[in-house]
Amino acid sequence: MPSGGVSTAELADLLAALPFGHRLWVRGMGRCLYPLLRSGDAVRLLRCGPERLARGDVALVRHGPRLAAQVVLSTEPWVTESLLGGTDVAGGELVGRIIALKRGRWVVRLPRPTRPALFLMQRTLSGVWTKPASRAVFRHLRDLFSGWTKPLRRHFVGPLEIRLVRPEDLDALLAFATERLVVSGTFLRRQLRDRWGLPPDRRVGAAAGAFDAQGHLLGFAWADDYHQEGLALDGFWVRSLVVSPRVRRMGVATALVRCLVEEMERQGADRLHADIDEDNTASLRTFSGLGFRPAPDALTTATNQQWDAAGGSKRLVVLVRPLPG
Ligand SMILES: CC(C)(COP(=O)(O)OP(=O)(O)OC[C@H]1O[C@@H](n2cnc3c(N)ncnc32)[C@H](O)[C@@H]1OP(=O)(O)O)[C@@H](O)C(=O)NCCC(=O)NCCS
């Protein structure tokens, strides 16, 4: 993924303008090849046309402003899917073939002989993953595993500092956003400059981060009003609460939200809201544990109506926490 606020659409234009035969590394292509590739890892792109691809290749495909790395299932008709199958939009414009993957220091090449194996892997994984029961078993195992590995993860990550995000944290914030947030880097940069990063007496809204000893961000959340995004919802709302998987179940989300509660109280807000997908048990428990309680029905209805109109699909539970001041 590009740094310095280049959007995915700009990156897609840039890649599409490259001559055929050109090769380059591109980072942060989303979760389409998960679990083989995680968001924030890099892929090596060979810019080429569809005649160079066959079933089982990995294609970099452009869907409007989005870029996605997908497995080619058929070339006539042209069908690609993410590794776990499912929800991706059909069609798309081919940018090129992915010839290698890179995670940290590890590079895995994808030469042509890997095509049948990758095709079979996609068929098997997507067959299993599209069944809700398989996903439930996976989540259960992951939670179990997460408990066992907690002491080890705590040891390797070291102590975390939970505090308000400051203007000098911008690079760490953009790196985290590239990997984990759906909010654009441009939006975050502007909010930090014009609202969250101002001196205490002029600050409006706030962002909280969990920083490791190297200054990397491993968890993030912000509180601000919705009017800026065109939603007719009053008050301050907690948004984009995300914790890196390696530090989950260690109280990071709890500490981030607590930090925002304290700051919004200091700013004189009389309450703080959160809107959460109704099936997000982890998040619902986190907020309940911090004294957030169900909002009045009228607010819940209004919030769901606003999000439905903005294209949201899941029902949201709205919680509110009074700030005594
Ligand atoms: C939801 C999320 C932020 C929680 O982060 P976290 O740092 O692991 O949360 P905490 O350690 O502070 O957990 C607080 C409580 O929430 C509950 N909880 C957290 N993760 C849970 C899980 N996977 N399953 C069930 N309960 C969970 C527990 O009650 C936990 O307390 P406990 O560990 O003492 O039992 C994290 O799982 C995440 O980033 N998820 C993906 C993004 C997301 O869904 N964000 C929320 C958008 S509203």
What labels would you give this structure?
Aminopeptidase, 325 residues, alpha+beta, 8 helices, binds coenzyme A, seven-stranded antiparallel beta sheet, seven-stranded mixed beta sheet, Umud Fragment, subunit A
Structure report:
The protein is of the alpha+beta class and 325 residues long. The protein folds into 2 domains: 8-129, Umud Fragment, subunit A, CATH 2.10.109.10; 138-322, Gcn5-related N-acetyltransferase (GNAT) (Aminopeptidase, 3-Layer(aba) Sandwich), CATH 3.40.630.30. It has helices at 8-16, 115-129, 132-157, 170-180, 185-196, 252-266, 281-288, 297-309; strands at 23-27, 42-47, 58-63, 66-74, 79-81, 93-103, 106-109, 161-164, 206-211, 217-225, 236-243, 271-277, 293-294, 316-322. The longest helix has 26 residues, at 132-157. The two termini are 42 Å apart. Residues 143, 241-243, 248-254, 276, 280-283, 285-286, 289 line the site of coenzyme A.
What is the top-level CATH class of the largest domain?
A: Alpha Beta
Strand-and-helix sequence, N→C?
A: HEEEEEEEHHEHHEEEHEHEHE
Strand content: 25-35%
Radius of gyration: 21 Å
CATH homologous superfamily descriptor of the largest domain:
Gcn5-related N-acetyltransferase (GNAT)
Low-confidence stretches: 1-5
Main pleated-sheet profile: 7 strands, antiparallel
Helix content: 25-40%
End-to-end Cα distance, whole Å, is 42 Å
How many helix segments?
8
Oligomer: single chain
| Count of discrete structural domains | 2
Domain N-acetyltransferase: 160-324
Pfam families: Acetyltransf_1 (PF00583)
Organism: Corallococcus caeni
Protein name: N-acetyltransferase domain-containing protein
